Amino acid sequence: MHDLRITRENARFQQWEALLTNRSKRHRNRELLVQGVRPITRAVEEGWTVRALLRADGTSSGWADELWASTRAERVVLSPELHARLSGKEGAELVAVVEMPDDGVARLADSSRPHGPVVVFDRPTSPGNIGTLARSADAFGASALVVTGHAADPYDPQAVRASTGSLFALTVLRVPGPGPVVEHAHAHGYRIVGTDEDGSPLADVDLAGRVVIVVGNETHGLSSGWRAVCDDVASIAMVGTASSLNAAVAGSIVLHEALRQRG
Questions:
Q1: DSSP secondary structure string, the chain?
Q2: What are phi and psi of 101, to 5 degrees?
Q3: Between the CA of residue 103 and those of 85, 100, 159, 185, 247, what are the distances in Å?
Q4: CA 120 distance to own-chain centroid
Q5: What CA–CA distance (Å, rounded) separates 98 from 81?
Q6: pLDDT at 240 > cutoff 90
């Protein structure tokens, strides 16, 4: 397989560069840019489709060379200047153009971890928080991460980076509102548990079976739509002077408790 060489900015390069900042282009092309060793390795291991691998001319390392030699994706060698514009602050040696999966709720039934909790993040405003929650969801055995409502994008490079590749271990969906997720939950015997400071003490909430854990927006908490469909709402005990927890941290604590109860 021969390598494509791009030494000056062309339409193809501009299309890849747009994936870094332009959400609508990401979704129109159904692809995202993934930077660096761990995230690309996870994406490949978890069976995501890599459409192209990009590297700078003249670079070499054992890991990159091995992946380069074994990939079925298109291989593109860029001038160092062009590659630097795609490789992020850390200057990732390889950048992958990865295909975005479908957003259909039916994919929840196909998860590789069918018994793990489904985590819903409702209207998150921070891609970094999405990545942080994805990392915890992976660590604590969740099966899926669903982002609902008008929200930050789980495929934003910041979210992918913050997840350290864990995003690729989960079934990831973006859904306009609660409806399709609630229907899936009711059809498959899931309880829906929200997180809120007015809820029941976390240890008293049943998280052992099939459960959807809903984390609200960073500022406004759970939407009325989600609150109305919750079977239970859990609160996390706190001492000290902080008035609330970061949304991704709160979700992580509930996920850990769910893992403990499944024990």
A1: -PPEEE-S--HHHHHHHHHHH-HHHHHHHTEEEEESHHHHHHHHHTTPPEEEEEEETT---HHHHHHHHH--SEEEEE-HHHHHHHSTTTT-SEEEEEEPPP--GGGGGG-SSTTSPEEEEES---HHHHHHHHHHHHHTT--EEEEESS---TTSHHHHHHTTTGGGGSEEEEESSSHHHHHHHHHTT-EEEEEEEEEEEGGGS--SSSEEEEE-BTTTBS-HHHHHH-SEEEE----SS-SS--HHHHHHHHHHHHHHHH-
A2: -75, 170
A3: 29, 9, 17, 16, 23
A4: 11
A5: 22
A6: no
Strands 31-35 and 4-6: unpaired
**Distance separating alpha carbons of residues 49 and 206, to the nearest angstrom:** 37
What is the pLDDT averaged over residues 104-132? 91
pLDDT at 253 over 80: yes
Q: What is the DSSP string of 31-63?
A: EEEEESHHHHHHHHHTTPPEEEEEEETT---HH
* CA-to-CA separations, 239 to 205, 228, 244, in angstroms, rounded: 20, 29, 10
Q: How far apart are CA 251 and CA 136, in angstroms?
A: 8
The predicted-structure confidence for 184-206, as pLDDT tens digits, reads as follows: 999 999 999 999 988 999 999 99
Entry pTM:
0.93
- Residue 192 to residue 220: CA distance in whole angstroms: 19
